[in-house]
Amino acid sequence: MASSSDRKLNSSASRASKPTFRRAGGRSGASAKPQRNTVAHSKSVGHARQTSHPVVGSQLGNRSAAKKSSRPSVTSKPVMGAKPARPMATPKPSTGTKAARPGRTLGASKPRSLTSVPATAKKPSSKKGFNPLSSLGAMANKTSDAASVVTGKGKIVGGVLAVLAVLVVVAIVVINSGLFTATDIQIQGSEHVTKHDAIQLIDLPEGTSLFNVDPDQITEDLKQNPWVSGVDVQRQFPHTLIITPTERKVIAIAYISSDDLAWAIGDDDTWIAPLSTSVEVDDQGNVITTGQGSNTLTGIDAALALAKHYGAVLLTDVSADVAPVSGQAVNSKAVKAGLDYVRGFSSEFLGQVKDISTPSVEAISANLNNGIEVSLGDSDDIAKKERVVTKLLSQVEGVTYINVRSPGNYTFRNAPTS
Fold it and tell me: Where are the beta strands (DSSP E) in 258-398?
């Protein structure tokens, strides 16, 4: 049985472990300031080791402040007219952090500010989420950049257009000025297009310059002469314009005996113009254009001399119903078939041909320079017919006539040899 002194010691210890509150207004002589609770250093019941740190507030033993903070605190009412004491708030520990160690006496020294330690930041997830606001922002930035680029390019294009406009105005002024007026017009004549004839045909507007001259119009004017196939227009600054007509190439001379006319035919199968059947030639039979020849040829002989002069082939026995027109295409079937042979024969064989008779398509024949007559017929298998004729001329002596209307079944005649 405990003594009376032990019971007093135990009762005083139990009273000291609990805070004592005093109501205001209990006594007229009571102190205005609320008394602070003091924790006496004593040994707790059932603990063998004395606590080395003081207990905060009303905590007992090793009970944590987090458990105590869950209980409602009882605040004593201040005395009338006295300044109430500011209650001490117990900070809640942050998640994942250690609780503050109890035992430091409040009011013993200047309290430190309690700062919670932030939780460890999580690593960003490797999976990227879609943020529409950030996408809209990126699109807006790109649009702004594109607009800036377009604006910059627009300024450059505007500057280039302004420079071009100035150049156009300057060019118009120069063209319409008299700086490059074509005052020296040189026309190169040809055999059948004289300078006088060309001047009569060309119609240049007054004030024509080297810039606004129209070569197509000049060509159209000169093509009124059927010998002209094209025109070469050259500019020599500052005032010279050189015009040179190009004549059609004559590939055949068609002699129409009923009219005693020799018509020149161009390489585009066009009737060019009639030629005089009275020509002057030298001792070798060459045509003299100067009018000082030693001999004068007429009729078919004149036509043959003209064909030789142009490097063309003479077409004879042309039907009387053929009516050529200068500048018009040849439409006679027999004459066109004769022109097919002129184009189809090789140049070597064509050099042996004196003339080609064209009374009809089926009756076309060629007279060679050695006097041999070759019956050709229509203008089919021209190359094959030429090979047959060439082979016979090289292998058979005394040939006078060859029929190659059917080159696969040809015939020929030759004079007997003694």
Answer: 261-266, 271-275, 278-281, 295-298, 313-316, 353-357, 365-368, 373-375
C-alpha–C-alpha distance, residues 101 and 86, integer Å = 23
CB of 37 within 8 A of CB of 19? yes
Compute the chain's Rg from CA coordinates. Answer: 64
What is the rounded distance in angstroms from the CA atom of residue 356 to the CA atom of residue 254?
10
User: What tokens appear for 71 in the block?
Assistant: 């209980």
Residue 231 to residue 210: CA distance in whole angstroms: 16
pTM for the structure as a whole: 0.59
The whole-angstrom separation of Cα 13 and Cα 356 is: 157
**What distance in Å separates the CA atoms of residue 376 and residue 374, rounded to the nearest whole number?**
6
Question: In sequence order, which residues have a C-beta less than 8 Å from that of residue 76 and are 6 or more positions away?
Answer: 21, 22, 23, 24, 34
pLDDT one-digit tens code per residue, 118-132 = 444 444 444 444 455
pLDDT tens digit string along 161-195?
888 888 888 877 776 667 888 889 999 888 899 98
Cα three-residue angle 51-56-62, rounded to 5 degrees? 45
| 25 band by pLDDT with thresholds 50, 70 and 90 | very low
Q: Where would I find the beta strands (DSSP E) of 248-376?
A: 250-256, 261-266, 271-275, 278-281, 295-298, 313-316, 353-357, 365-368, 373-375
Place of tokens 């009412």: 77
